[in-house]
Amino acid sequence: MKYQIIIPAHNEGNFLSDNLQSVANQSLTPFRVVVVNDHSTDNTESVIDHFTSKYPFITKLNTTSSEEHMPGSKVINAFNKGLEIIDLDYDFLVKLDADTILPSDYFKKIAEIFHLNPKAGIAGGFIYEQDKSGEWILNHPMDKDHVRGAFKAYSKTCFKAIGGLKNAMGWDTVDELLAQYYSFEIHTEDSLAVKHLRPLGKGYNQKARLLQGKAMYTMRYGLIISFIASIKMAFKHHKPKVFWDNMRGFLKAKKEKSPFLVNTAEGKFIRQLRWKKIRAKLF
Q1: What is the spatial distance between Cα 187 and Cα 174, in angstroms, rounded to a whole number?
Q2: Helix (H, G, I), strand (E, B) or coil at 245
């Protein structure tokens, strides 16, 4: 199958070489890889140049944006810049973080998933991070049917159906909710272990948590589901403040009447899906 990869990269010089080498080593070679150098001030560009000189399928795209790292908007802005120059002839499209290392058969198996299951809309493996002893440990605080935003692969039909990626915090949740709304399936593959070189949540701060609450509002979760989801997040992070920041963000977005990411029908489906999962865990 024909696939293309977009890699947003802002000051990723410490990780990008390992990332791109793992992409170049894939047993199923990508048709094109666009590395978006997003306003980097370190050696990110020179690393990209090194790989573009060795591998003709790797392309560099320089762009300028804010230096502030905010989950959601910055990375999707860069992704969308890359989206503008990819070839429109592909079977699946990948949004890949620059601080990951993929096993060599990663995209061969992803291609098999999409080939064997026409209903598969989003696919991916699982993240592993090093603990203090240097051992690679599974780090997946979400439900097992969730593909992490660091390495999301979308079938072309699914990507078009969901309207691409939302430029907001929560983009890697709403994409899966909308995929299911349009009758696509989310496929996670246990055998695909991806090494994540930067600890989970390192770039998240109070402002990001407020945006998380805003995301719950804009995805039309409603107050009760947002309340439950915020409690769950606080427990998983072992930080009660996460709950309060999330709810503050939700209530602020509601007061300001922030625009929704989904329409009324999609929002109704999302709430029904969330309640279904909550009941399944309770009973």
Answers
A1: 16
A2: helix
